[in-house]
Amino acid sequence: MIKLSLRGKLMKLFLAMFIIFIPSAYSLTNLQLAMEMYERIAGAQTRTNDPVIVKMKTLLDQGNKAGAAAEATKVDSFYNITLLEWSKKFFDPENANSIDGELTDASATLIGMIRDDEPFNKIFTADLLYKVDGVAAIRRNNNAHYVRATTDNVNLAQKLEPDTISNVYGIAPDATAGIFTTRGFAQSFLEAGTNRAAIKFINNHLFCSEMEQTGDSTRPGQKIGRDVFLIPNESVPDLHQTYCMSCHTAMDAMRGAFAHYSFDNNQLAYTPNSVHEKYNINPENNRTGFKTVNDSWINYYSKGVTKDFNFKGNQSGNGLKSLGKSLTNSSIFSKCMSQKVFEKICLHKPVSAKERSIVSTLGVEFTNNNYNMKNLFQKMAATVTCYQE
Ligand code: HEC
Q1: How many domains is the chain built from?
Q2: Inside any domain, residue 248
Q3: Pocket of ligand 1, candidates 247, 282, 284: which has the most ligand atoms within 8 Å of its Cβ, to mutate?
Q4: Nearest CA to ligand 1 atom 36
């Protein structure tokens, strides 16, 4: 037998510690993994002898992680807790990821579409609105229907049912554009201001970006509104070009799509024949600025620092339906949805190269899988390794 030197002994001890401590941090039993997956997907804890857990463990024993995750998405609380919170974050006007807001037609529609396996790229084009069965009818000028569903603790997983926006709000089917034309969206993003908050929403929730990240002063500025001061500060004569333009080039070129929509008298206001007044206020700020006369839009996010967003459809058009279609026909939409699902399952943003690669890969699969959001949740839960953090 070879006698180990002290150094050799220490090395052996070190290796032994390595084997005991490091790998154990990555080895949940299948029962523990089932419990963790359940909690992240269904948004609640359960007992180890819950039949769902028993089934999930069996599937995990067979090496079928996606199958195990799929069992957890069949639990009602996947809709009533997890997706409810996940959807509400889209519509927080402060973009603070708050889940405190009321359930609205907008968040209910996202939840219903996921339950019914509606392709999720239709969220900004479909004439589709989910209401709650058994609750007094929707009123155009308040949110009582959805608030009532919440206070009555209605089981959304079972009681959401599809209707159409055109039927409920009385606007032409062609003028509907999924959640863009819901009362909830309009109240959050079209009420105050100049409809630019809607484009900030697109940046935050379709591109998963802050305005500063997508800004680029080199894009064409001819669509910038007349209210955006040409000389905002006498002592910095080129401030408009160097700073204001970075956001307002692409933002103002896109906001035309919302020109016929607003939130007035507590309801979604659609005026097919006129542009809302807020588009052309304060013309003295910038006499050479753009005057909005119709609902045409251009997508300048397809250029400059955001060209990798990879928009594949029309880069210009009229109205909201065509904008919604164009925006979702891109790499960035799928990747952003994938990121949002990652964050819901892992409870943090993707940070490591491995996590970012999971988000990209599953984003592509989401596109190829006809934008099935339930499936994206299942695959994400089966792929990530964040359960012990
Ligand atoms: C980082 C991006 C960004 C930059 C840079 C920027 N803006 Fe804006 N601006 C926005 C957003 C987003 C809104 C919409 C805010 C809202 O309604 O919530 C907006 C709205 C406005 C409005 C309309 C205000 C209203 O009542 O709705 C004006 C006017 C304006 N900006 C002028 C400027 C000027 C002048 C500059 C340069 C000094 C500038 N902006 C720079 C993002 C930007």
Answers
A1: 3
A2: yes
A3: 247
A4: 244
Task: Give the number of the atom of ligand 1 that is nearest the alpha carbon of residue 246.
Answer: 5
Q: Write down the pLDDT at residue 27.
A: 82
Instruction: Say if 219 falls within a structural domain.
Output: yes
Burial 335-369 (b: 16+ CB within 10 A, else e): bbbbbbbbbbbbeeebeeeebeebbbebbebbbee
User: Is the pLDDT reported for residue 280 higher than 70?
Assistant: yes
Q: Which residues lie across from 210 on neighbouring strands? A: none
Are 265 and 200 in the same domain? yes
245 & 343 share domain: no
Q: Mean pLDDT score of the chain, rounded to an integer?
A: 94
Cα 49 to ligand 1 centroid, rounded to whole Å: 55
Q: Are residues 258 and 293 in the same domain?
A: yes
Q: Are residues 275 and 337 in the same domain?
A: no
**Residue nearest to ligand 1 atom 42, measured at CA:** 247
Does this model's pTM top 0.70? yes
Do residues 157 and 80 touch, judged by C-beta distance below 8 A? yes
If one counts every other C-beta atom within 10 angstroms of the C-beta of residue 91, the result is 23
Tell me which residue range forms the domain holding 338: 333-383
Among residues 328, 347, 374, the one where a domain terminates is 328
